[in-house]
Design brief:
With about 525 residues, this protein is of the alpha+beta class. It contains 14 helices and 33 strands. The longest helix is centred in the middle third of the chain and has 17 residues.
Length: about 525
């Protein structure tokens, strides 16, 4: 068991939309032998779609809107990749996914540098105190100066950088990278056709090889010699302890689209990133090598298989070994974990065993919620909750055809349990119409699309004028006390699916009013799931 856990590596890939994150994921799978031909995310109509983008709406729009989980073997390691949605409207799904990872790979576009979404995700990584590796992508296109890019990462994100390799030119002049650890140059050999679909050809030179100047040209050769001297003299020292605590980010340059620099990055990353980390619970940390099984649910996805209309709960194993059909404790009840699956985006296979660090999918008959703890019977554990963020956009939603109430309630509930949307109801009312809250407007599109295509329900959506929502934190709050609150006329009282009371506000002024005129009222911006 110890050997198996030690060879596990579980990481999330994060970036701003369009930086090449899903493409990089595909290339890892290509080198790991999990796929034989990499599919481009945005491509011609007849070309393949990326393996990690499985939802129909993702294929149509060429973006990732759900987190995907993929596992493959490479060089003796067992690797679990969590590919996250780059679009800021899905930042909550990304946050939950980062809770399941032991390290993060941050993909940055070499021509754009650090973008808004990168900053937001980076803050989450810092909160988790996990290692952050940087892959500066798209060197085969015109790029900014590598010095400017490193400077921006350090200033914007407040983290030290250590370039593991150094680019030689960019765009049409991109000639390869200098590997600092091995003191050698990997020369980029562009492919004429089928670029990036297969493993790439590379030519190796040592820095003092007389053929190097001829291969990259005298100007780039002189620039490279100067750069190497400057890097060795002026940069940060490499410190593995700082890397492991997210204080220093190893930086790699390459091009995911053409596969250049992907394999050297993967090799160094696996060498430097830690095996599964200990996880915090209310009663102390859980050691991954503890033989008693424990795990938590970080994602729920309905209808991954259209033929079966099933629900899969994704769990991160935190300690011990999982065995098919084993009995575990969940919310004080004993349950059997049926149909454990290893997921490769939409395709899956039944597995017999898994270890700490692994991500597996288990069949969910409707009993799991995000943040739930699963553990060996008799072991009293509760992993730290996963925060639910306050949505910022709200719509009143009802079904067009009142005969389809059952499908409407089922669809809305299931999509809410996945964490893709949040549902609120008027106090003491039914589910004939609900208030749907989201972080970004694209989530409304996905909700409507999924209700129509997966649950066969046409819905009507009406935008509501609220921008803020707050959970009421007072434990003694009941319906009578709620009625007595002194609130502005544009404040709405609602409850969530767990029956907890919340207030919807049109502006900050109304929030201040509620706090000033209701002594002892506790309002919270997020709740723990």
């Amino acid at each position: 068991m110890k050997t198996e856990i030690t060879r596990r590596r579980t990481f999330a890939i994060i970036s701003h939309p369009d930086a090449g994150k899903t493409t990089l994921t595909e290339k890892f799978l290509l080198y790991g032998g999990a796929i034989t031909l990499a599919g481009m995310v945005k491509g011609k109509r007849n070309s393949r779609h990326a393996v990690s983008d499985w939802m129909e709406i993702e294929k149509q729009r060429g973006i990732s809107v759900t987190s995907s989980v993929m596992q493959f073997q490479y060089d003796g390691y067992c690797i679990n990749i969590l590919d996250t949605p780059g679009h800021q409207d899905f930042s909550e799904d990304t946050y939950r996914t980062l809770m399941a990872a032991d390290s993060a790979v941050m993909v940055i576009d070499a021509s754009k540098g650090v973008e808004a979404q990168t900053r937001k995700l980076f803050k989450v990584c810092v909160m988790r105190d996990i290692p952050i590796f940087t892959f500066i992508n798209k060197l085969d296109r015109d790029a900014r100066s590598p010095y400017d890019l490193l400077d921006e990462i350090e200033k914007e994100l407040g983290i030290g950088t250590y370039p593991m390799n150094w680019p030689i030119g960019s765009g049409v002049d991109f000639k390869g990278v200098y590997d600092r650890g091995k003191n050698r140059v990997l020369r980029f050999v562009p492919e004429e056709s089928g670029a990036g679909r297969r493993e790439v050809e590379e030519e190796d030179y040592s820095l003092d090889d007389p053929g190097l100047e001829t291969a990259i040209g005298p100007y780039l050769y002189e620039t490279l010699k100067d750069d190497v001297e400057l890097l060795d003299g002026a940069g940060y020292e490499f410190d593995l302890d700082k890397v492991r605590h997210g204080k220093l980010s190893p930086v790699f340059f390459g091009s995911a689209l053409t596969n250049f620099g992907v394999e050297p990055f993967l090799e160094d990353f696996l060498r430097l990133t830690p095996p599964p980390l200990a996880r915090k619970t209310a009663s102390g940390a859980v050691d991954p090598f503890d033989p008693a099984f424990s795990a938590f649910v970080f994602k729920i996805q309905a209808n991954m298989n259209k033929a079966h209309r099933d629900r899969i709960a994704f769990i991160r194993i935190c300690s011990g070994k999982f065995e098919k059909g084993m009995e575990v404790e969940h919310n004080g009840r004993k349950i059997k974990l049926a149909q454990p699956q290893q997921i490769m985006a939409q395709s899956r296979e039944i597995i017999d065993e898994a270890y700490a660090g692994d991500i597996i999918g288990i069949f969910d008959p409707g009993i799991f919620s995000i943040g739930d703890t699963l553990c060996a019977p008799g072991k009293k554990l509760k992993f730290e909750g996963i925060p639910t963020f306050a949505p910022e956009l709200f719509s009143l939603v009802r079904q067009k055809d009142t005969m389809k109430r059952k499908q409407f309630v089922k669809g809305a509930n299931q999509i809410a349990q996945e964490g893709a949307i949040q549902i609120f109801q008027e106090i003491a009312s039914g589910m004939e119409e609900v208030i749907v809250g989201v972080v970004g407007s694209l989530q409304f599109d996905v909700f409507q699309y999924r209700m129509e295509n997966e649950y066969n329900v046409d819905i009507l959506m009406q935008t509501l004028p609220y921008s803020f929502i707050r959970w009421i934190g007072n434990e003694d709050m009941d319906e009578q006390a709620l009625k007595k609150l002194n609130l502005t006329s544009d404040t709405k009282k609602v409850q969530d699916l767990r029956g907890r009371y919340l207030l919807l506000f049109a502006n900050q002024w109304s929030i201040n009013w509620a706090l000033e005129r209701n002594e002892g009222l506790i309002l919270s911006e997020f709740s723990e799931s």
